[in-house]
C-alpha cells in the first residue's frame, strides 16, 4: 500500500527468550511528544498488559503512525491514532482467513502508457528522484522505482501491523539498552565478523558517555509481508539505522491519488481505502523534538552523516527541507571522513562540526563496512558516540538491529 513501512511492523515470535523479554518489557516506560512543545515527556513506568493486541475498532484504514523512540521510552508522532496499543508483550498473529481484495482492474494498454508517462513527469516535477549511479555524473537523475497504481493489501492485516508498532518499538528500545543481552547475543558473531566486532568495541568504550548523555532518537522501519491465505502479518526484518524512503513514500501516496483521479479509477480504488501518508512531517517533528532535548544546544543543528555520492539524496533532502520549513532547523551533510576532519567534542561533551554546535546526529551512513574505508572513519564514529549530541541511532540501537539479534528475537 502507499504507506511508509516504518509505521507498519511486524509478527514477533519468541520462544526461548520469552521469559527474558517479559522481564524487559514488564515495566516499559512510555512517553509522548506533545506537538505544541515538541519535547519528550517521560511518564511513570507502567506494567504491560499481556493480553493479545487487536486493532482499535475506530481506526479504519489509517496508516499515519510513525513510531519514534527516545532512549527512555517511546515517543509517537501520530495524527489522531488511539492510545490503547500498549498491551502486548509477545504478539502472535492469529490465524485469519483475510484475503487481499480483488483489484484486477482492466485498463487499456494505451491508458497504461499514458499513465506511465504522467507518472514519470509527476516524479520529476515533485522530486521523486534518485541518482542514476554507476559512472554517470552525480547530477544525472531518474525517477525512483514506483508502482503505477496502489497495491491491494488485506485491511485487517494492515491494521494489525499498525497496532503492533508501538510495542515493537518498546522492545527495540529495551534491547538497545540491555548491554548484557547485546554482549551475550553477539559474542560469537564478533569472533567471526570484524565489522560487528568494531561496533561492539565502540559500544563497550562509550558506555560511560551513554549513561551520562542518556537520550537517543530511533527512527525504525519494520518491513513486513502478509501471508494472504491466512492473513497473518510476518516480519521480514527491522531497520534501526538509515531507515530510508519515508519522504519519497509520502510523495508516492500523493502521486497515486493524482493518477487515479486523472484516469477516472476512483470507483475501483476508493479514496477512503488509500491510507494517508504523513511520514515526512512526522519524521521531521520527531527530529525537532530530539533537538529540543535540554543541554544539547540552542541552535538545533542536525548533522546528517551520509555516504559520498549518495544516490538516494532526494529522500534525505526532503527531510532537510521539512526540518527547515516547519522547524527552522538547519541540516549539515557530511561523510564520516568529513566528520573526522571538521568535527570535535569539547570538554563539556558538546559536539561541533565546522564550528557549528550539533544537537542531533542523524545517520544515513555507517551501517555497512564499505562506509569505513580506514581508521579515520572509525575515529569519526567513536567521536560522535562520545558526544552529548542525541544520536539517531546510537550504537546500542545500531547493534539491536543486527541480523543476529533479529534472529534471536
Features:
38% helix; three-stranded antiparallel sheet; 409 residues; 15 strands; six-stranded mixed sheet; disordered N terminus; globular; 13 helices; single chain; alpha+beta; 16% strand
Q: How is this structure best described in words?
A:
The chain has 13 helices and 15 strands. With 409 residues, it is an alpha+beta fold. The strands form five sheets. Strands 10, 11, 12, 13, 14 and 15 form a six-stranded mixed beta sheet that branches. The chain has a three-stranded antiparallel beta sheet with strand order 4-3-7. Strands 1-2 form a two-stranded antiparallel ribbon.
Annotate the secondary structure layout.
Elements: H1 18-25, E1 31-32, E2 41-42, E3 66-70, E4 73-77, H2 109-126, E5 129-131, E6 141-143, H3 155-176, H4 179-192, H5 194-205, H6 207-212, E7 217-219, E8 221-227, E9 232-239, H7 246-263, H8 279-291, E10 301-305, H9 313-327, E11 331-334, H10 336-342, E12 343-345, E13 351-353, E14 356-363, H11 375-386, E15 390-392, H12 395-400, H13 403-408
Parallel strand pairs: 10-11, 10-14, 14-15
Antiparallel strand pairs: 1-2, 3-4, 3-7, 5-6, 8-9, 12-13, 13-14
Amino acid at each position: 500500500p502507499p504507506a511508509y513501512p516504518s509505521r507498519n511492523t511486524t509478527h514477533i515470535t519468541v520462544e526461548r527468550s520469552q521469559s527474558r523479554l517479559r522481564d524487559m518489557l514488564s515495566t516499559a516506560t512510555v512517553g509522548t511528544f506533545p506537538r505544541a512543545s515538541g519535547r519528550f515527556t517521560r511518564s511513570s513506568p507502567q506494567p504491560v498488559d499481556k493480553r493479545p493486541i487487536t486493532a482499535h475498532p475506530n481506526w479504519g484504514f489509517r496508516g499515519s503512525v510513525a513510531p519514534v523512540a527516545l532512549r527512555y521510552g517511546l515517543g509517537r508522532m501520530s495524527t489522531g491514532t488511539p492510545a490503547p496499543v500498549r498491551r502486548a508483550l509477545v504478539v502472535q498473529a492469529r490465524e485469519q482467513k483475510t484475503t487481499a481484495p480483488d483489484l484486477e482492474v482492466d485498463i487499456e494498454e494505451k491508458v497504461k502508457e499514458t499513465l506511465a508517462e504522467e507518472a514519470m513527469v509527476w516524479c520529476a516535477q515533485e522530486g521523486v528522484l534518485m541518482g542514476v549511479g554507476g559512472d554517470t555524473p552525480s547530477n544525472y537523475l531518474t525517477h525512483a522505482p514506483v508502482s503505477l497504481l496502489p497495491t491491494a493489501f488485506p485491511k485487517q492485516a494492515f491494521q494489525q501491523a499498525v497496532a503492533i508498532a508501538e510495542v515493537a518499538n518498546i522492545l527495540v528500545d529495551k534491547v538497545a539498552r540491555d548491554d548484557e543481552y547485546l554482549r551475550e547475543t553477539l559474542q560469537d558473531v564478533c569472533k567471526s565478523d570484524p565489522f560487528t566486532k568494531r561496533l561492539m568495541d565502540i559500544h563497550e568504550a562509550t558506555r560511560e558517555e551513554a549513561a551520562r548523555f542518556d537520550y537517543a532518537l530511533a527512527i525504525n522501519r519494520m518491513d513486513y509481508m502478509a501471508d494472504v491465505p491466512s492473513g497473518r502479518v510476518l516480519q521480514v526484518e527491522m531497520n534501526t539505522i538509515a531507515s530510508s524512503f519515508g519522504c519519497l513514500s509520502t510523495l508516492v501516496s500523493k502521486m497515486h491519488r493524482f493518477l487515479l483521479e486523472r484516469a477516472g479509477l476512483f470507483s475501483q480504488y476508493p479514496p477512503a481505502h488509500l491510507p494517508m501518508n504523513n511520514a515526512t512531517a512526522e519524521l521531521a517533528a520527531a527530529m525537532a523534538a530530539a533537538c529540543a532535548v535540554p543541554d544539547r544546544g540552542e541552535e538545533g543543528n542536525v548533522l546528517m552523516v551520509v555516504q559520498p555520492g549518495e544516490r538516494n539524496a532526494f529522500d534525505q533532502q526532503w527531510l532537510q527541507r521539512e526540518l527547515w520549513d516547519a522547524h527552522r532547523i538547519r541540516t549539515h551533510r557530511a561523510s564520516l571522513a568529513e566528520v573526522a576532519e571538521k568535527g570535535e567534542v569539547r570538554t563539556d561533551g558538546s559536539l561541533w562540526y565546522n564550528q557549528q554546535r550539533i544537537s542531533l546526529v542523524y545517520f544515513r551512513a555507517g551501517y555497512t563496512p564499505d562506509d569505513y574505508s580506514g581508521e579515520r572513519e572509525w575515529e569519526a564514529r567513536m567521536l560522535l558516540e562520545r558526544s552529548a549530541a542525541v544520536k539517531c541511532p546510537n550504537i546500542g540501537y545500531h547493534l539491536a538491529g543486527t541480523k543476529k539479534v533479529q534472529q534471536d528475537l
